[in-house]
Design goal:
Blueprint (H helix, E strand, L loop, with lengths): L1 H19 E2 L18 E7 L2 E7 L8 E6 L2 E6 L21 E7 L3 E9 L2 E8 L13
Parallel strand pairs: 1-6
Antiparallel strand pairs: 2-3, 3-8, 4-5, 5-6, 7-8
């Protein structure tokens, strides 16, 4: 019974890691993860050298979403400002349009190739930038 609890804790740790880490997937590809964080997102592995992040940004316009990468951390921020003209009385409000800021760690040697937004999904593509190994002659002294 103790091992089951330890395995569950380990799986939760990997689940959390997979939710916020882009490019580390090949090391943990056997672990499935689910997330309920707002806004929901997917990290999709195209190959060992390419990943993309999908973030549900329904209700946000492109000019309300900011993407910043600094020191291996990707931060996506959206600021929703409802104008007086947009203020409505809802009978039921199930579509969240609240402001958010969400950060992801990017694996070493991965860089953002491009970002786009279509049909309420923000897509950020990452590719592995492997420095070319160059052969060099070593002089014997």
């Amino acid at each position: 019974m103790g091992n089951l609890s330890t395995n569950q804790e380990l799986n939760r740790l990997f689940d959390h890691f997979n939710q916020v880490a882009v490019g580390f997937g090949p090391m943990f590809r056997d672990f499935n993860h689910q997330t309920s964080n707002y806004p929901p997102h997917n990290i999709v592995s195209v190959s060992d050298n390419e990943f993309y992040l999908e973030l549900a940004v329904a209700g946000f316009k492109k000019n309300e979403v900011t993407i910043q990468e600094e020191n291996g951390t990707l931060t996506i921020t959206a600021d929703k400002q409802e104008s007086v003209a947009e203020a409505q009385t809802y009978q039921y409000r199930g579509i969240a349009k609240r402001s958010f800021s969400k950060s992801f760690q990017i694996a070493e040697n991965f860089e953002i190739q491009e970002a786009g937004m279509e049909d309420g999904i923000l897509k950020v593509v990452f590719v592995k930038n492997t420095p070319l190994a160059k052969a060099k002659m070593i002089a014997i002294k």
